[in-house]
Amino acid sequence: MEKNIFSRKLIDLRRKNQLSQAGLANKLFVTRQSISKWENGESEPSIDKLISIAEIFNTSLDNLIIGNMLDKGKLVSISHINKSYDNQVLNNLSLDIYDNERIALLGLNGSGKTTMISIMVGLKNADSGDVKFSFNKKKGLKLMPQNDVLINDMKVSELLKLTQLLNKVKDNNHIESLVKEFNFTELMDHYVGSLSGGQKRRLSLLLSLMSPSKLLVLDEPTVGMDLETIDILWNHLEHVTGSILMVTHDFNQIDKFFSRVVLLKDGRIENDMSVDKIHSHNQTVEQWYRTNNGGLNHD
């Protein structure tokens, strides 16, 4: 059995079914520590337990053990990136992103998070190093930037139509569903410039989710959002396919939603760990962050 595939598949299935390690352990009549070891690749379940896991999650043994080929796919490879302005912002930074991951990118103000994202998506150039994608970046990479990039003198309906055309989205029912979900039905004839700050953040989110993505990148999406829009964000992300990379310090949601946390410090990857491994050490992500970053003064 390929441990990395099984471990990722087990974590993914458990999260999708909103089942804790303890809950799965009870169904399998094993300890929570056993589940933790399976998910960390430290041990493997017996064939009887594998069959039981497949039955619990209504999947095949082949899918559980082998996974489909996409499960093994590396989406992005960031290699030895350096970037300086007056001071060095990124220092020999390397990071790989795989299919079906939920990554929270953490770090203090000035640690290089937004610069890394800007270089990765092509908005800025690195001084050295490279970024490689295994998919068509124009089609499969979607970004919600930290600051809204909207056309204020267009109506909401016009901007939606333009984005739909640019992304070649043909499913009008899907667009109508998003408009309703994001509460824009009564705002379609309003000019974008007349929207409140919270409504603009909600519109930016809607535009970034209009078409399917291999990798969705969200840079501090909840900044400036009202509580209603924050709820819409998290509810919708539960149904997003592909991988997600998000800059966020909403620790309650990180514990619930994300599979992996990456900590930037002084332009380097200081730590990179699965959320379940953090939990297996009886820590929340917030406690882990305090321990590894010396506090919570983040941007």
Furnish the topology, listing elements before pairings.
Elements: H1 3-16, H2 21-28, H3 32-39, H4 47-56, H5 61-65, E1 74-84, E2 88-98, E3 102-107, H6 113-121, E4 128-133, H7 137-140, E5 141-144, H8 156-166, H9 172-181, H10 197-208, E6 215-219, H11 227-237, E7 243-247, H12 251-257, E8 260-265, E9 268-274, H13 275-280, H14 285-293
Parallel strand pairs: 3-7, 3-8, 5-6, 6-7
Antiparallel strand pairs: 1-2, 1-4, 8-9
Pfam families: ABC_tran, HTH_3
Organism: Apilactobacillus kunkeei
GO molecular function, one term: ATP binding
Describe this structure in words.
The structure is a single chain. α2 crosses α3 (32-39). The chain has 14 helices and nine strands. The protein folds into two domains: 3-71, lambda repressor-like DNA-binding domains (434 Repressor (Amino-terminal Domain)); 73-293, Rossmann fold. A hairpin with a 3-residue loop joins β1 and β2 (88-98). 41% of the residues lie in helices and 20% in strands. The longest helix has 14 residues, at 3-16. It is α/β, with parallel strands linked by helices. It has a six-stranded mixed sheet with strand order 5-6-7-3-8-9, sandwiched between helices. It holds the Pfam family HTH_3. This is ATPase component of ABC transporter with XRE-family HTH domain protein. Residues 73-291 form the ABC transporter domain.
